[in-house]
Amino acid sequence: MASLRKSNTLYIDQEALSALRLVKSGLLYPVTSLMNKKQTIEVLQHGSFNQKLFPFPLLLAPSGKINQEVLASALPGDKLILVTDNQEVGYLVVEEVFEINPKERVRQIYGTDNLEHPGVKSTYKRLGKIAVCGDFEIDLASITARKERIEEAKKRISAQHVTAIMMGANPLHRAHERLIRQALDKTDLVVIFLLKPFNNTDLQYDLRFKTLSYFVQNFLPTNRVIIIPLENSYIFAGYNEVIIDAIVAKNFGCNRLTIGQNHAGVGMYYDQNTNKSVIDRLTTLNIEIDIASEYVYCNECKTLVSTKTCPHGQHHHISYHSDSILELIKLGLLPPAVLMRKEIAAIILSELFPDRFKNLEKLYYDIMPVTGLLEEHTEKDFYEELMKLYQTTSLT
Q: Staple 340 to which of 9, 179, 335, 361, CB 3.0 to 4.6 Å?
């Protein structure tokens, strides 16, 4: 590739590139372009863009000395080459450049500018003091393919109603499974948007996709559930997350967004002495919002129950906190089946701890019931059989 001249090159990261793809593909409609200064002020004043709900200005203001020099000297009509990871990914024709306050910018997104907040700290480092807007071109092949998959799935079953679920599945546990099944009861097609964060996550996307795919393929009607990757960039962060989720889901062709009670931004606030939720603001988006019940395991009911319907107190409840289940996994412990399906746990542990056992076959035949025939077994097989032993109750 020919060397890129610094004077007309803008260096952006994968996170910014992802946001630009959402804009260009129409997934953030009513926003279909980067905002200029006048539009930025409009959104800050009214919380809307072209009289439609949008929570904060959508800007491109990359950090870095070279970027700041390029933007400071850029004039309307200049063509800036967009480069990500040393690869040319598109171009932008300058309409306007204007100064922004990075701290105010993160406050608009997160509701705070406290740099102790990990998300605020990460986003603040990425921000420069000059924003640029203008028409731009980038490759939209990945977004187009995802849209086509959803449309094909809808046509395959003549789906009239489509429900979106934004899910990290980090890791996939029993409450996630119940949430998906509950959504299936109320809709024709469920689209699970599996989140791909740009910062480090405990379980890599490919592993989370593998576990979710296993569950869908083996325990759900496969023609009614599809998994779509969704880059979880900074614009989905903070207390406006549910608004952006709803906008993206709607523009992907979904009629409903199902969220949990603990979803970011669902909390109450006061407006003119009236109790309101962010859900009240979503009525203008023309998408249903379904807030799913919180599910727990009750040791009196002996099953997974909604906290709204279980008569027993919290001291009888086992909660599904992903971080706690993940801590067990990171320690190499097999989570109880009441928390996570044994097949899912086996997939994760066998990948996180490969070649863990010195003599797997001997261990398997020493402690597991077998047919008597010599067979090869994987570490996944071992974990699944071990869980069955944990569930044996005759001696407990």
A: 335
